[in-house]
Amino acid sequence: MTADFDPRLARSNVARLAIAQALAGANAAVIYAIGAIIGAQLAPDSALSTLPISLFVVGMAACIPPSGVIARRYGRRAAFLWGSACGVAGGLIAALSVFWGAFWLFCVATFFGGAYAAVVLSFRFAAADCVAPAMRPRALSLVMAGGVAAGVIGPQLVTGTMYLWPPHTFVITFIAQALVAALAALVLAGVRLPLPTAEEVAGGGRRLAELVRQPRFVMAVTCGAVSYMLMNFLMTAAPLAMHMHGHSQENANLGLQWHVIAMYAPSFFTGRLITRFGASRIVSFGLLLTGASTLVGLAGVDVAHFWLMLILLGVGWNFGFVGASAMVLECHRPQERTRVQALNDFIVFSTMAIGSFSSGGLLTAHGWDLVLWVSLAPLLLAAAAMLMGNRATS
C-alpha cells in the first residue's frame, strides 16, 4: 500500500472489518462455550472431550498458510470470503454431527470453524493496511474491539438457542452460528482493499530466513504465541472445570461471555496506549495480568473465582496479543507484509494447538490446579524473550 489513501474509504473499511469481527468472532465464542461439553457427551473416551476445541486450533494453524496465499495472489477480500464459506460449512456440519451424535464429524466441524477463525484474525492486519503508519496501532485495535459484541453474541446465541429443540440440544445453536457467518460475509463483500502488487505476488523482499532473525520479530512472535496459547489453554479447560465443580452451563456461558468481552473491550484504547507507552510495555503488562489470572484461579473454585480469572485472562490476552501484533507491523516492508503476518500467525496458532491438546488431558487426569500451575512456565519464557529482545534492540 502506498502512502496515499482515501480517508473515507479507510473509515468504511475499518468499520466493516469491526462489524465483521463482531459477527464472525461469535464462531469462536460458540465453540469455546460448548465444544468441550459436546465433546464430553459424544467422545468415546472422556480424555477426548476437549479434542474438538484442539482441532479448532489445529484448523486455525493449518489454514493460515493457504489463506495467506489467497490473500497474496487474489487480495484479502477473497481470503475473507473463503473463510466465511468455511464458517458456514462448519456450523452446518456441527449441527448435523450433534443431531446424529457423531463425535468425529463434530471434530471435522470444529476444524472448519478454526479455518474461519484464522481468516477472522487477519482482519486486524487488513485494517492496518488501510491507514497511514502512525494510525496503524489504533486501526488494528479498533477492529479487535469488534470482539466486544462477539463476546455477547456468541454466548447469548448459545443461551438463547440451546433448548429450542429439546431432543437435540445445541443443533439450532450451530444453525444460527452458520447464519451469522453468512451475514458477516455480506458485510465483508463491501470491503475495498488494495490488490496485491506484482512484487508481493512474486514474494518480493527479504528472504524468510533474514526476516525471522530480527530480534523484534522473535520477541513479537514469542509473546504473541504465549499470550494466545495460555488464553486458549485456560479458556478451553475452564467451562469443563466449572462443570466438574458443580457449576451450571448458564454460569459457564456467562463466565465465557465476560471473558470474551474482557478480551476485546480494552481494544478501544489499547492502540492509544501502544502509541503513548510503546508496544513492549503494553505486552509486559498483559503478561503480568495473565499471571494474576492464574493466581486467582488457584485461590478457589467458586463461580466468582472462575469469572474473575477469566476476566483477567481476557484483558491480559488483549494487551499481550494486540501489543505483539503491533510489533509485527514494525518487522516488514510493504511487499513482505502478507508473508510476515501469515508466518507470525502460523507460529502463534501452532504453539496454541500444543496448549489446547494438553489442556483437556491435564484437566481430566490431574485436575484444575495443575492446569493453572503448568501455565506459569510459558510466562517465564515470554518474560525472558522480552528481556533479550529489548536488550538487542536498545
From TrEMBL:
Transmembrane segments: 17-39, 51-71, 78-96, 102-127, 139-158, 170-195, 216-236, 256-275, 282-301, 307-330, 342-364, 370-389
Record-linked Gene3D superfamilies: MFS general substrate transporter like domains
Residue ranges of every copy of the Major facilitator superfamily (MFS) profile domain listed in the record: 178-394
GO molecular function: transmembrane transporter activity
Domain of life: Bacteria
Keyword line: Membrane, Transmembrane, Transmembrane helix
Keyword Metal-binding recorded: no
Alphabetized InterPro entries for the sequence: MFS (IPR011701), MFS_dom (IPR020846), MFS_trans_sf (IPR036259)
Record flagged with keyword tRNA processing: no
UniProt-recorded name of the protein: MFS transporter
Organism encoding this protein: Pseudomonas abyssi
